[in-house]
Specification:
single chain; Four Helix Bundle (Hemerythrin (Met), subunit A)
Length: 123
């Protein structure tokens, strides 16, 4: 089913058109948004805790798992930013890398909010 996604222009982080191009089907996009929101609920809290505790290997592992769906649902610039931080944080810990990883959090929160809003809009 290749139905219309509806209004997709109001989102800054969520790239529904890119997700549709990647997945090829509006139904698949909508079916994956729910699990995306659930995953982000847990993953963002875990990432915040790991960074606060200085668990950078744990944070790198979590960023690695996020890297799997971020390119599907986000614009390329954020996907590349996240992948770069994930790669660098695996190799070393530094205040700059800690700040880079922490700087990802507002965008992840916004992605979750936009995905949730889209799902509510379609309900």
């Amino acid at each position: 089913m290749h139905a219309n996604l509806g209004d997709t222009g109001s989102f800054q982080v969520l790239n529904l058109q890119g997700a549709l191009e990647f997945l090829g089907d509006t139904q698949a996009v909508c079916e994956l948004l729910g699990p995306l929101v659930q995953s982000l609920d847990k993953d963002i809290a875990d990432l915040e805790q790991m960074l606060a505790q200085g668990d950078f290997l744990g944070a790198a592992g979590l960023l690695h798992s996020l890297k799997g769906f971020i390119p599907v649902f986000c614009h390329a610039a954020f996907a590349e930013q996240l992948a770069g931080v994930e790669k660098r944080i695996r190799l070393q810990d530094s205040p700059a890398l800690r700040n880079e990883a922490t700087a990802l959090l507002p965008t992840l929160h916004q992605l979750k909010a936009e995905a949730r809003a889209y799902l509510q809009q379609r309900a």
